[in-house]
TrEMBL record:
Ranges in coiled-coil conformation: none
Ranges for domain Alanine racemase N-terminal: 7-223
Cofactor needs: pyridoxal 5'-phosphate
Keywords: Isomerase, Pyridoxal phosphate
A Gene Ontology term for the protein's cellular component: cytosol
InterPro entries from the UniProt entry: Ala_racemase, Ala_racemase_N, PLP-binding_barrel
Pfam families attached to this UniProt entry: Ala_racemase_N (PF01168)
Molecular function as annotated in GO: alanine racemase activity; pyridoxal phosphate binding
Tree of life domain: Bacteria
Protein name: Alanine/ornithine racemase family PLP-dependent enzyme
SUPFAM superfamilies: PLP-binding barrel
Length: 354
């Protein structure tokens, strides 16, 4: 069925192995993030085959899908108070910054007769989740340590995702400092120092990641083969594991300039156009309802994306190499935002290629 996403399983395992080996050289364990493909267990198995220790997702509904896989599961988004039961029941570890939530997790863990592990998040300037003040962080850590059914498993940070703050020796050394301060207060070592996501990969290549950082949460680096601090490709990885395939439903020569008064398009924007004369245009049966406003890139040389409405993607194929015909399939490589949207869309068929 078209449109579809094809997932190359062999390439996914390869990228996982490459990143796993890179991390292992620095004594780092990986949590492979499954949210970019909605926690589909048949895809997550590629992470497992590639050797990662942890599986991680932002949504409990996805973590539920992963229960048959043996790896410890990490809930990446801070738990809502309304999902503490499911968090304790289905996730082995959760990231947290609110002591009220951690108390609720403790009550639920006591009811279920289990221990739940917590990674306490510090905000080092990106201004998304995390305790910002050092004194508050230590006070929270001391209370968590005293809870009956919660294990203070480690300390972590998230960078780049909101504020665009790039991981550095300076801010990750601050994470080390805060972890050391907590260890001094509670009288034992923390198991995990979680130093961020795919934007921290470049520090491994520079061999400058602080010594106590022993955990990273990777999604984009594995599934797209790119680090997310500067958008560079990672050596010896594939960037085409996930490809969108769309089908041509119209192929005609038309003017490059619309005819008539220009107003707003379907999304409230006023478009502008450049007159390039008559061009050959292909319309594909996929649109912004599927991939949002995120970047996709035609694999075939000479094709240019002109725009998209909710259900239609319009390409200039005048200079495309080789013939294009109605019914042809056109392939696209993706950036992370487009991958998230496409995998979430119920209108996109997902096909694993083994």
């Amino acid at each position: 069925m078209n449109p579809r996403i094809e997932i190359n399983y062999r390439k996914l395992v390869h990228n996982t192995e490459v990143l796993q080996e890179k991390a292992k050289e620095h004594g780092i364990e990986l949590a492979a993030v499954t949210k970019c493909f909605c926690g589909i267990p048949e895809i997550a198995q590629g992470y497992v085959d590639g050797g990662v220790k942890y599986l991680a997702d932002s949504r409990i509904s996805n973590i539920k899908k992963l229960q048959e896989l043996p790896n410890p599961k990490i809930l990446l988004r801070l738990p809502m108070l309304t999902e503490v039961h499911e968090t304790v029941a289905f996730a082995d570890i959760s990231l947290n910054s609110e002591i009220e939530t951690i108390r609720a997790l403790n009550r639920e863990a006591k009811i279920l007769g289990v221990n739940h592990r917590v990674i306490l998040m510090a905000d080092l300037g990106d201004l998304r989740e995390g305790v910002f003040e050092e004194e508050e962080l230590i006070l929270v850590a001391k209370e968590v340590e005293a809870l009956s059914n919660i294990i203070l498993h480690g300390i972590g940070v998230n960078l780049t995702c909101y504020g665009g703050v790039i991981p550095s020796v300076k801010n990750l050394s601050k994470l080390e400092y805060l972890g050391n301060a907590i260890e001094k207060e509670i009288g034992r070592s923390l198991e995990i120092y979680s130093g961020g996501n795919s934007s921290s990969i470049y520090l491994l290549d520079e061999k400058s990641i602080p010594e106590r950082i022993n955990h990273l949460r990777l999604g984009e680096a594995i599934v797209l083969g790119t680090e997310s601090a500067y958008g560079k490709n990672i050596e010896n990885t594939h960037q085409d594991i996930f490809q969108l395939v769309g089908e041509v439903i119209e192929l005609k020569e038309k003017p490059s300039m619309p005819i008539g008064e220009i107003g707003m398009d379907a999304f409230g924007n006023t478009p502008s156009f450049e007159d390039e004369g008559i061009r050959k245009r292909a319309i594909l049966a996929v649109g912004r309802q599927d991939f949002g406003s995120y970047d996709i890139f035609p694999v075939k040389e000479g094709m240019k994306i002109l725009g998209a409405s909710s259900d239609h993607l319009i390409l200039d194929v005048t200079d495309a190499k080789g013939d294009v015909a109605v019914g042809d399939e056109i392939r696209f490589n993706l950036r992370y935002g487009a991958l998230l949207s496409l995998m979430t869309s119920e209108y996109i068929t997902k096909k694993i290629i083994y």
